[in-house]
Amino acid sequence: MNELTYTKEATYQFEYNGDVNYEYHFVDSILNMRFRSAEESVENSLPTSIGIKGTNEAHQIIKAVLVGERVFYEDTQGQKFVELLYLLPDINCYMQIEYRKEYEPLFDKWIVGWSSRLGINLIKPN
């Protein structure tokens, strides 16, 4: 039996509205398939398969290219809920991400949230 390990292949940087988020992609040691995680290490967690072969390139930090946005809600105070579409140029796939910026009065501060539905929002064009 082979030992299953993961090697970090890419760190994606997503920028929007002055905020930055990162996502990490790994390749497994058996099938050379891509896996993704919101965590920088998968030593103690299970990454999610994205069904794409690894690139066999050394780890690199890649700036995702914002190609589209759809604003769900925006107010004059600066709260904003947006659907974003980014190109991951090294694997020619698109990633759908929800961006939220909202004021939290209980803590008297702005909170930014990024979410991507793991495993279902990576789009490979034909």
Written account of the structure:
The structure is a single chain. The protein has 126 residues and is mainly beta. The protein has one domain. The chain is 0% helix and 60% strand. The protein has no helices and ten strands.
Uncertain ranges = none
Q: Which oligomerization state do the chains in this entry correspond to?
A: single chain
Order of helices and strands: EEEEEEEEEE
Instruction: Specify the overall morphology.
Output: elongated
End-to-end separation in angstroms reads: 36 Å
Total individual domains: 1
Biggest sheet, spatial arrangement of strands: 4-3-2-1-5
List the helices and strands and how they pair.
Elements: E1 6-16, E2 19-28, E3 33-37, E4 48-53, E5 60-63, E6 65-74, E7 80-88, E8 93-104, E9 109-115, E10 122-123
